[in-house]
Amino acid sequence: MSFLPLFENPFLKYASSTLIGFILSSHAFAAYPDKPITLVVPYPAGGATDTVARKLQEPLSRQLGQTVLIDNKPGAGTAIGATAVAKAPADGYTLLISSNTTFTVNPALKPNLQYDSQKNFEGIGEVGTSPLVLIANPKLAANNVRELVALAKKEPGKLSYGSFGNGTTSHLAGEMFKVMAGVDIIHVPYKGSAPAMTDLIGGQIPLTFDTNVAAMPMIANGKVKPIAIGSKTRSPQMPNVPTIAESGYPDFEMVPWVAIVAPRGLPPEVQKKLSSALESAVNDPATRAELQKAGLDVKFEPGSNYDTRVARELPLLKTYVQKANIPAE
């Protein structure tokens, strides 16, 4: 009887390679992260989501023990940045921070997206919400919703509003307002919040829908004026600004939420580590204060909440799109 040498025995050879692979794999998970992490912002620098990302950058880096790099990839109503992350390896080194513009509004408006918010992403955690505010250039001859509607009806097709892109929450908010108020206001899409705000301040457009985060500093220094807020109840950060709902349109509500997601398929250990780091960063008193100061209603929600929220919100927004008769892109 003869036996194969140990190093030539197929079974032992397979078992050894499997064991080595398991050890290396376990070591890789335990060592995560061992290089910088990229946080993609699908908007230009200076906008609301970019502001939130940069306020989280340092505390996240501290919690993870690695540098978190901000990578702005604006365009196509956040679809360019979202698609890039959807196609990235599911290894925890490429993340996306965005609002429901990416996760529910785009899918409700655009049937030919190159990403699927339910199939391609998994949640790391939600950071909070930031109601949209209808703001105006200070020279506009309207200071509230009633005056704005009267002005728009007096001059149909002459007023315009800016949004931070086709298929964004600000676009949908503007179209819903037009339908509910029965007014003809022209939509002007921009590649993000910041350029729309720049043109609003400069007088190139008279109106825009933007988030608390972007609007509050500009309102405080008098560069723009608030008309109304898009949440059902008044914002704690802007208690003197009435809601569109209380101004005669009780069904109006548009409140963006901000979340960090990763390509679906993360190793569970990596997802858990990222979620824990984000929760600690968001709940850090100094960071929380900075986010609230910027206008965010801060509330951490675990990554599992992402799937639940998308599944609930997406069909509702599809209904809104149909009511507003917004054409599919």
UniProtKB/TrEMBL annotation:
InterPro entries assigned to the protein according to its UniProt record, in alphabetical order: BUG, Bug_dom1
Pfam families: TctC (PF03401)
SUPFAM superfamilies in the record: Periplasmic binding protein-like II
Family label: Belongs to the UPF0065 (bug) family.
Protein name: Tripartite tricarboxylate transporter substrate binding protein
